[in-house]
Design a protein that fits this description.
The complex is a heterodimer. Chain A has one domain. Chain A is 15% helix and 37% strand. By secondary structure, chain B is mainly beta. Chain B has a 7-stranded mixed beta sheet. The chains are: A mainly beta, B mainly beta. Chains A and B meet through helix 1, strand 1, helix 3, helix 4 and strand 7 of A and strand 5, strand 7 and helix 2 of B.
Chain lengths: 158, 421
């Protein structure tokens, strides 16, 4: 086997700070994605999304989708109907390609430079992606920094 | 490459052996149960060392896999991470040179899995192998080979691909969770409208881009904690690591004992039993008079991950050249703290003392094993959003015997799942 000499740098010891946490895939149906149009949120619910709840606020509308897998997905749309934030929590992670839409590749590229297997905190210009949790209990959210409506705290994307 | 086998507590063994005790080497702490089992059929060596990439607190062991039924077509693989935070054996395809048969479903179609971890996903086919560790064996075990290109990763297997030695930091992962299967009943459920099946497993009819389709896989065929399939000592495990100094150690050797109360070397003794919920969780209060937080024990977490900086008033580290150092706590002086651990169902509560040292200080030397390495369970800007938790990671294991009883398995202290220490 290969032996990589230890170089006593912070970098080396920073690697995998976390468990090999098992998290399962949710093969979720097509739905509105980050940066996309909220108008498809309702119609996008196919087989795995059992219930929906909608909360309207002055600054935005929150669509809550409950998958049969037990995972809850929330999408936050501004008053022009554009999705500026998404969040998820539950035993399985939703399909990030569908949830992040056009930003999925951006996420992959940003994640490549990140070492470590602990809580994820990707903050790049315009985009924040955070993930945490453990085996069978996972949390995450992503939002477009510049598209969060004025007057709305990012704490509300949850 | 093996770590030095020297057991730091070796000198203490003699008297115990002379007394005929089944275990030896009293740990340095008199407050909790800590013995290091001597070599036996149910005892595997484990060690913390620089490993493949030199990261702190990686706990490794060596496993052997054989072509099912063969005693000669075998391969021994070292530096496999020992992880109570997941279930099942996964090996890197670049390391596994042995040709193992594909694991197929009842229709003869090969299976594969997209398993996700917090920071990404791993993808790879399932194979069958006879798995051996110490003198224990699980025959015809379903394992996963990752970083392997038999089938292209399906487009709905999302998240960063972490199936590389560089990102894994190990040649494989031996999942010894109290939760027997890596998915469980949801992945056995029929697929279709309103199915609870998350589509983790795939049946791969061909090696084309769409050749793998989500499939229901019965519990018995899922990736499972292999201990469950041993013919004996199959109700759980004990991690036995010696105490280490506050400044850390360059390497640590200990024992991984199979079975709980099945032999004279794996009794619970005075260990406190903490029963777990369906997610492998119990409760922890820090400070001890605060609201309980969800908690779990995980040998695969290389630090204690607990709460967040705002709640603990412990600053995270900062280094402009290494932004990921903010994963760790950096108190100006080492903190000696106490937390209360509670059984899920109103049983035992116990106070656990632990320390949090400045991670940058710890990393400035040549040590690699630390009992006081910690960080927040959520990132600073995420703390308002995500629930915090208390992950009793590898640092918690030094100087303790940590028992993990598998879900549904009988032990002298009742049925799993539980942890005890």
């Amino acid at each position: 086997m290969q032996t990589i000499p230890f170089t006593s740098t912070l970098f080396c010891k920073l690697l995998p700070p976390c468990a090999f946490f098992a998290l399962l895939l949710c093969s979720s149906p097509a739905r509105a994605a980050l940066g996309g149009d909220a108008s498809s949120i309702g119609t996008g619910q196919t087989h795995l999304l059992a219930t929906a709840r909608i909360e309207r606020a002055a600054t935005h509308t929150m669509h809550e989708l409950q998958a049969a897998t037990g995972t809850k997905v929330r999408e936050y749309a501004d008053n022009d109907g554009k999705v500026f934030g998404v969040s998820w929590q539950g035993p399985f992670r939703p399909d990030l390609r569908q949830l992040l839409g056009a930003y999925y590749e951006t996420y992959l590229n940003a994640a490549k430079t990140r070492v470590g297997r602990g809580p994820v905190n990707i903050q790049i210009p315009g985009l924040v992606i955070q993930m945490s949790g453990h085996q069978r209990a996972f949390y995450g959210r992503a939002y477009l920094v510049d598209r969060v409506p004025q007057g709305l705290s990012t704490d509300e994307i949850r | 490459m093996r770590a030095p086998r020297t057991r730091k507590a070796g000198a203490a063994c003699t008297s115990a052996v002379l007394l005929g005790l089944g275990v030896a080497c009293s740990g340095s702490s008199g407050l909790h149960h800590n013995t290091i089992a001597l070599p036996a059929d149910n005892v595997a060596d484990v060690f913390v060392d620089y490993g493949l990439i030199g990261y702190a607190n990686g706990l490794f062991t060596t496993v052997t896999v054989c072509v099912p039924g063969s005693t000669s077509d075998c391969q021994t693989i070292d530096h496999v991470l020992v992880d109570t935070g997941s279930s099942g054996l996964r090996l890197l395809g670049s390391v596994l040179t042995l040709s193992l048969p594909a694991f197929t479903n009842d229709s003869g179609v090969g299976l594969a899995e997209c398993q996700q971890f917090i920071s990404g996903s791993i993808w790879g086919p399932l194979r069958s192998a006879d798995f051996k560790i110490a003198n224990e064996q699980a025959s015809n075990l379903t394992i996963q080979v990752i970083e392997e290109s038999t089938y292209p990763m399906p487009s709905d297997c999302t998240g960063t691909d972490i199936s590389s030695p560089e990102l894994l930091g190990a040649n494989g992962n031996l999942g010894l969770s109290s939760i027997a299967q890596d998915c469980g009943p949801p992945c056995a459920a029929a697929l279709g409208p309103h199915s609870e099946n998350p589509g983790l497993y795939y049946a791969c009819a061909s090696a084309t881009a769409d050749g793998c389709q989500a499939a229901a896989v019965p519990l018995a065929q899922q990736l499972t904690n292999p201990v469950l399939f041993f013919s004996q000592d199959n109700n759980g495990t004990i991690f036995e690591l010696p105490a280490i100094p506050a400044e850390g150690a360059p390497s640590v050797a200990g024992s991984l004992v199979f079975g709980i109360g099945t032999r004279d070397n794996n009794g619970l003794e005075q260990a406190s039993v903490i029963r777990l919920d369906d997610y492998g969780q119990f409760r922890t209060q820090y400070p001890t008079n605060s609201t309980p937080t969800l908690a779990f024990v995980d040998s695969g977490s290389n630090m204690m991950l607990f709460l967040d900086s705002t709640t603990t008033h412990i600053p995270t580290c900062y280094d402009a050249l290494h932004p990921d150092i903010s994963d760790f706590y950096c108190p100006t002086a080492t903190l000696n703290l106490s937390a209360k651990i509670e059984d899920t169902f109103g049983g035992a509560t116990l106070i656990v003392n632990f320390s949090v040292a400045n991670a940058i200080t710890l990393f400035s030397g040549d040590n690699i094993a630390f009992n006081n390495l910690a960080g927040p369970s959520v990132t600073p800007s995420g703390q308002s959003f995500m629930p915090t938790y208390f992950d009793w990671g590898l640092p918690f294991h030094f100087g303790r015997n940590v028992f993990t009883a598998i879900d549904g398995q009988e032990t002298p202290a009742g049925q799993g799942p539980f942890v005890a220490f």
